[in-house]
Amino acid sequence: MADPSFDVVSKVDRQEVDNALNQAAKELANRFDFRGTGAAVSWAGEEAVTIEAETEERVLAAVEVFKEKLIKRGISLKALETDEPAVSGKVYKVPGKILKGISQEKAKKVAKFIRDEGPKGVQAQIQGDQLRVSGKKKDHLQDVIALLKQEDFGIALQFTNFR
């Protein structure tokens, strides 16, 4: 029988993000303090969102509304990357990106952390945009999961395929 293993992934449910975006757009349209400010939030591609308003203050408030909706939907804010507000004509725009997968540099950082801090006999292999962690005992793997949950790598981590 193969050694017990699990995968470390960074996934975001697109449907939940879409729901959060629609709720934020509805709130921006209905809230009194956003009336007449041209505040809007919308998709700008497959994994990109754009938040815009007529003043810098209102566009930053719109970003906060979108973040609140993401949190309510159970999506980590580490999965959202936003830039600073930029002026485009009369409108301030904040481009944002929904992060998916673990980049090579982050994967190397996580694998090194597991090697250094984790129990003996546990290996981490980078497989594309995820990590496969395997070891002799399931208890060691659970210890690794606990260690990874305590550490902040700047990305949202989930643990799947525990066998």
Instruction: State the total count of DSSP E strands.
Output: 9
Q: What name does CATH use for the topology of the largest domain?
A: Alpha-Beta Plaits
Calculate the terminal CA-CA distance, rounded to whole Å: 11 Å
Secondary-structure element string: EHEEHEEEHEEHE
Label the structural class.
alpha+beta
Give the overall shape. elongated
Largest sheet: 5 strands, antiparallel
Report low-confidence residues grouped into runs of 5 or more. none
CATH class placement of the largest domain? Alpha Beta
The CATH architecture of the largest domain can be named as: 2-Layer Sandwich
Q: Helix coverage percent of residues?
A: 25-40%
The averaged pLDDT comes out at 92
Strand content: 25-35%
Q: What would you give as the CATH superfamily of the largest domain?
A: YajQ-like, domain 2
- What value does the Rg take, in angstroms? 20 Å
Number of domains: 2
Per DSSP, the total helix count is: 4
